[in-house]
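Working notes for the structural subgroup meeting. M.R. asked for a predicted model of this chain before we commit to crystallization trials. I am recording the input and output together here so anyone reviewing the notebook later can reproduce the run.

Input as submitted:
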Amino acid sequence: MRIALLAHVRQPIRQPFLGGMEAHGWYLAEGLAARGHEVVLFASGDSDPRFTLDPVLPVHYEAVFPWAEHRGKPELIAHVDAGYAAACDRIARGGFDVVHNNSLHRFPLEPRRTAATPTVTSLHVPPYDALHYFVTASPGPTHRLTVTSARQLAAWWPQGAPPEASVLHNAIDPAAWPFVAQGNGEAVWCGRITPNKGPHLAALAARKAGIPLTLFGAIEDPDYWGTAVEPLLGDGIRYGGHLDGPALARELGQASVFLFTPCWDEPFGLVAIEAMACGLPVAAFDEGAAAEVVGEAGCLAPAGDVEALARAIDTARAIPRTVARHRVETHFARDRWLDRCEALYAEVCAGARVTRAA
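Returned structure, recorded in token form:
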């Protein structure tokens, strides 16, 4: 199939990933190409050059309109709108069999566009006002929607999801996150360093549990880092930097437990399954989709409860590492995910044939 992958453009689709959406887009492009599909990645122009790129914007918009300064500003909205409008027009003229839309933008959801090119839209966030109407008005024979967890399906459609909407869990290639049979007794955390990811709470819980902790990830919010996280460094808490996939996998595999501390309605938690693939059981806040992702491979604490998370660390460390690896292999392996993506593409293409015939 000739597939257009339409990405979010806040950050580039390249390693080291800034977050789960960037990782999702990269893994999808790589996996579909490996299966013989002709893939064109519509993303920021500074994304991974190994892919066939058709830039939505010349560079990711965070480089031009920094988040802390321009969040929601009209000039940022106009900049992004212009990029997506032109990209959607190129897709319509490009002879694509299907679009996989990860953009979180309203233009690809327009019925005139999904009717012209069958579309699968993946939603990676909880519902929000700017997109909610367009999402709920968009299902149809040539448009399927997916969310990353049952929790998010209920959030987007509290009265019941339409038949065109379904759960498509995120996934990874287990081979890229090698299993390690024995850890070093320490804890690890990774993700975007921002308040809604809660690394400061992970540090406080690790200190209460008496276990060393290393934090990995991009410092997205420098003010938060400087006031809430950096002062906690030392005495067993350290920052290990922002690493690409292979380097992060090596670091994760050495540890004994992964701390997952969402402080918002986390739609999935890709970092958790990366750690689980390496054999790490998880101590997590019961927030968002954490319970759905971690399952039997971890121990949950009430959201925001540092004392309970410290206790969960001890409980989680007793879970065999093989349990964590097995959960990834049976629920979140990339081949299962790609099979499901291809099935969704087939559904919307069949819907397009029926619509044209009618």
